[in-house]
């Protein structure tokens, strides 16, 4: 098993063999590192190191933000590119619920491995916000099916719904970042 060290200044953990003259995270001298003993089993640590949930979360955030930008751009852009923009926007709107589900399931897996349960206070808030984000994506899909992709009223609803999705993404991200270093030992 490889020896680990932790930076006393910022908490960055790394293999002792990779330690040079400075902390790669915060830049303090190497003398600020001390030995670190991992309190998590190798199997759990290996699964968490795949960063499944943090990676999957980027898709719904990027899709939703792109939908917001595209739906606002529809009021400005004219000509041939407008048709391509509308087609791209519709693909993103159709895919958004699926990528939210993937990120949600990744979050449940992460919570189960990290905390051995998914009903911790912050995870419950994230689950609630994730469900609301999913419902917004479904509403956006329904709006665009009902109104059609070319309808200006549909775009206004899409702007409002995707802006709500961006706000939810910010809260989900802030809660998620607060949990990155937390995990049960064993």
Can you lay out the helices and strands and say which pair or pack?
Elements: E1 4-7, E2 13-15, E3 33-36, H1 42-49, H2 52-73, H3 80-115, H4 121-147, H5 152-179
Antiparallel strand pairs: 1-2, 1-3
Helix pairs in contact: 2-3, 2-5, 3-4, 4-5
Describe this structure in words.
By secondary structure, the chain is mainly alpha-helical. It folds into two domains: about 5-35; about 45-180. About 65% of the residues lie in helices and about 5% in strands. A three-stranded antiparallel β-sheet has the order 2-1-3, with no helix packed on it. α3 (about 80-115) runs antiparallel to α4 (about 120-145) and α4 runs antiparallel to α5. The radius of gyration is 21 Å and the shape is elongated. The model has no long low-confidence stretch (mean pLDDT about 90).
């Amino acid at each position: 098993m490889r020896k680990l060290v932790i930076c006393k200044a910022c908490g960055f953990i790394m293999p002792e063999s990779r330690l040079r003259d400075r902390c790669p995270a915060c830049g303090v001298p190497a003398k600020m590192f001390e030995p670190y003993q991992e309190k998590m089993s190798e199997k759990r640590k290996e699964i968490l190191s795949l960063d499944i949930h943090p990676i999957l979360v980027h898709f719904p955030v990027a899709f939703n933000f792109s939908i917001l930008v595209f739906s606002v751009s529809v009021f400005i852009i004219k000509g041939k590119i407008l048709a391509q923009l509308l087609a791209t926007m519709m693909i993103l709107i159709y895919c958004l619920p699926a990528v939210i589900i993937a990120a949600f399931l990744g979050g449940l897996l992460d919570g189960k491995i990290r905390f051995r349960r998914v009903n911790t206070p912050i995870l419950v808030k994230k689950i609630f916000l994730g469900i609301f984000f999913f419902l917004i994506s479904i509403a956006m899909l329904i709006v665009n099916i009902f109104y059609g992709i070319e309808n200006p009223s549909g775009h206004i609803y899409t702007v409002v719904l995707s802006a709500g999705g961006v706000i939810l993404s910010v809260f989900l991200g802030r809660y998620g970042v607060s949990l990155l270093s937390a995990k049960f030992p064993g």
